[in-house]
Design goal:
Layout lengths: L3 E3 L2 E3 L8 E6 L5 E4 L5 E7 L2 E5 L2 E5 L4 E4 L5 E4 L5 E7 L8 H10 L2 E4 L8 H17 L4 H25 L9 H18 L6 H8 L3 H12 L3 H17 L6 H7 L5 H12 L3 H8 L4 E2 L1
Antiparallel strand pairs: 1-2, 1-12, 3-10, 4-9, 5-8, 5-10, 6-7, 6-9, 8-11
Helix pairs in contact: 1-3, 1-4, 2-3, 3-4, 3-6, 5-6, 7-9
């Protein structure tokens, strides 16, 4: 499945004249820790499939759907037999839409869509992924356009479902689900832009228009993590981008990403990525391997 791997980074070799790659995969092969700039959507069709996110194992059952965000380090453990769909669309040209960026932030590093957790959307998301597979394999006129239309519908379903879960925690019902989703997306976008600055929970709560109490609850429901964990995650993602620059030092990256202490930066980076900044930098600059 991984055709080009340089250190930690997989280069997704898209289908000719497209920005898409899809595998109908039946290989019994494990894949080492890696990340890529494309979204990755995985659905086992026969048998299970296991992924490792920084020593946290996620076991997918048949028809469970996993969406992995760009830049997320993960490894794959394959069973001895089985079949799964693996879809890797390049969404960099869609990131001009702030809602796309906000959604990626809200579900980072991944989201698992199961019939139990997402009963309202699971069957439709599965249907869309199967339709994308058929369209990709048939490759007719305007297939790429149609595939991106279906991908966008899938992202809309995920985004609205996340917003509904967050809105359900508001007891006084003073705001609609759409209003809450828009505001939290704006806050996520603001954090993405200013993550290397000294962001305070009180200030962001005030900016959102919610009380600190409601903001904490809504933010955690929307993103799946606390405010400060989210900020650190974005800082580490920025650090990951800077570390691959040949002339960047770990100290310079730490300062650039808002860390006043090099030891706290190293500790936080290892917590999120499973390796130190120096180890990450060294692994990136190792000779690449082709698979």
């Amino acid at each position: 499945m991984i055709e080009t791997l340089n250190g930690f980074i997989e280069t997704v070799n898209c289908k000719t004249s497209t920005t898409l790659k899809l595998y109908d995969n039946m290989e019994y092969e494990d894949y080492p820790s890696h990340w890529h700039s494309a979204i990755e959507i995985i659905m086992p069709v026969e048998n299970y499939y296991t992924l490792n996110f920084n020593n946290k194992l996620v076991k997918l059952r048949e028809n469970d759907i996993l969406l992995i965000c760009p830049g997320c380090i993960h490894a794959i453990i394959a069973p001895e037999s089985g079949r799964r769909i693996i879809f890797q669309p390049n969404t960099s040209h869609l990131r001009f839409m702030t809602e796309i960026e906000g959604l990626m932030s809200a579900i980072y590093p991944y989201i698992v869509i199961t019939p139990e957790d997402y009963p309202q959307i699971h069957s439709r998301v599965r249907e869309l992924l199967l339709s994308i597979t058929r369209e990709y394999q048939n490759s007719t006129t305007c297939s790429e356009i149609n595939i991106y239309c279906m991908l966008l519908e899938m992202l809309v379903l995920v985004g609205r479902s996340k917003a509904a879960k967050a809105a359900s925690s508001v007891d006084d019902k003073l705001r609609s689900q759409d209003e809450i989703a828009v505001k939290l997306t704006e806050i996520c976008d603001y954090i993405n832009t200013h993550c290397c600055e000294d962001l305070k929970l009180d200030e962001l709560a005030s900016l959102s228009g919610f009380s600190k109490f409601y903001f904490e609850r809504l933010f955690k429901r929307f993103t799946g993590m606390s405010f400060y964990k989210y900020v650190n995650q974005k800082r580490i993602a920025k650090a990951q981008e800077l570390l691959v620059e040949p002339r960047s030092s770990v100290t310079d990256v730490a300062v650039s990403c808002g860390y006043s202490s090099i030891s706290s930066f190293i500790r936080m980076f290892k917590l999120h990525k499973g390796c130190t900044p120096t180890e990450f930098k060294n692994m990136y600059w190792k000779s690449g391997s082709t698979r």
